[in-house]
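Progress against Task 2.4 (sequence-to-structure conversion) is shown through the following example record, which the project officer requested during the mid-term review.
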Amino acid sequence: QVQLVESGGGLVQAGGSLRLSCAASGRTFTGYSMAWFRQAPGREREFVAGIIWSGGHTYYADSVKGRFTISRDNAKNTVYLQMNSLKPEDAAVYYCAAGVVGAAMYPGRYAYWGQGTQVTVSS
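Structure tokens generated for the chain above:
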């Protein structure tokens, strides 16, 4: 059974940084894509960043390019999201997702989800 467990959320001032982690277990993830989505109150879940496990190709939403970096640690089966220059509009619950989807940005394509971690950005 695939499990994704996020951690690293919290409260940060605008302009600050946070690093989110997603610990994955339950299978090997060769061929999978791992992604981060976020959802703010009253808004739809939106794609943030993704990485294809094999090869490490990364892809980003335009709103976070140049500020956020997704990476993975094969040995730890963990995906990270380094978030720099945070803005109040980045505040949301951040979710880790996994699926055999290529560079998909649509949440419905992903089969597995974590429980989410809250990111709050104060202005």
